[in-house]
């Protein structure tokens, strides 16, 4: 089994929670793409996105993906929710065919997100509808780049992790 997997899915679907558990289960390293970006730009991603905009953020994101291509050992990497809208990163991950999509219902993720305030990438005065449009358009992009898809509906991170391991081993 090639143990280099990217966890994809909309913001707060559970990528980091599941990614950490999956890495432990497979005994490999865990990376968070947003953390790699933060280290490279010396700023938290939210502030970087707000200050420099989408294009600069996506360039930094692709640099982080390319950095991981050079890593020789196995790993699990939780990506940012916007990776599917970054054409260059999307093409790289699509070719690698090792992305795992956590598909969590809209209402569940929206209520998790809004607890911490409106994220930087939602700009309108109707963030719920703006996020719904984003959710719908991203859903099919994640599906098109995924090696496998698991539902995150009403399951704990450990249950989702077990389902992924089961599918990877089948
Ligand atoms: N399966 C789950 N059941 C209940 N709560 C969850 C589940 N997965 C994640 N959460 C909660 O949702 C929030 C976001 O989780 P997490 O950071 O794992 O998501 P993420 O997809 O990595 O988010 P981001 O896109 O912002 O990096 C956290 O508060 C976490 O505890
Ligand atoms: O969903 C998104 O567009 C994003 C999610 C975050 O994790 C960051 O990667 C960034 O703020 C973009
Ligand atoms: Mg995360």
From TrEMBL:
InterPro entries: P-loop_NTPase, Shikimate/glucono_kinase, Shikimate_kinase/TSH1. Its EC number is 2.7.1.71. SUPFAM superfamilies: P-loop containing nucleoside triphosphate hydrolases (SSF52540). Substrate binds at residues 34, 81, 138. It catalyses: shikimate + ATP = 3-phosphoshikimate + ADP + H(+). Pathway: Metabolic intermediate biosynthesis; chorismate biosynthesis; chorismate from D-erythrose 4-phosphate and phosphoenolpyruvate: step 5/7. Keywords: Amino-acid biosynthesis, Aromatic amino acid biosynthesis, ATP-binding, Cytoplasm, Kinase, Magnesium, Metal-binding, Nucleotide-binding, Transferase. ATP binds at residues 12-17. It is found in: Cytoplasm. Its main location: cytoplasm. GO terms for biological process: amino acid biosynthetic process; aromatic amino acid family biosynthetic process; chorismate biosynthetic process. Belongs to the shikimate kinase family. Monomer. This is Shikimate kinase. It comes from Thiospirochaeta perfilievii.
